[in-house]
Design goal:
Helices cover about 70% and strands about 0% of the residues. It has about 80 residues and is mostly helical. The model has no long low-confidence stretch (mean pLDDT about 85).
């Protein structure tokens, strides 16, 4: 039999794990949202196109340039940007 403190630790660890899963799913960008447009514009910026000349959207340039900068670092970097 487990002691009560061991069961409390297991319950706390499970609660922390479930909380992290929920948080990660909440900040995960969905492919059918505005975020997909931001990613597409950032990819085109990385390909050398000029913002507001060859590509256009109504957001501030900081949105696109920050995503373009972090795209090379991978998805966790983009999640961190969304969390900020």
């Amino acid at each position: 039999m487990f002691h009560r403190s061991a069961l409390n630790r297991i319950a706390l660890a499970a609660l922390v794990a479930v909380t992290w899963v929920v948080v990660l799913f909440r900040i995960q960008p969905w492919p059918f949202s505005d975020y997909a447009v931001f990613l597409a514009v950032a990819r085109r910026l990385n390909a050398g196109e000029v913002l507001y000349e060859g590509i256009w959207d109504n957001k501030d340039p900081l949105v696109y340039y920050s995503i373009a900068l972090l795209q090379g670092l991978g998805q966790p970097a983009l999640w961190a940007l969304e969390a900020l």
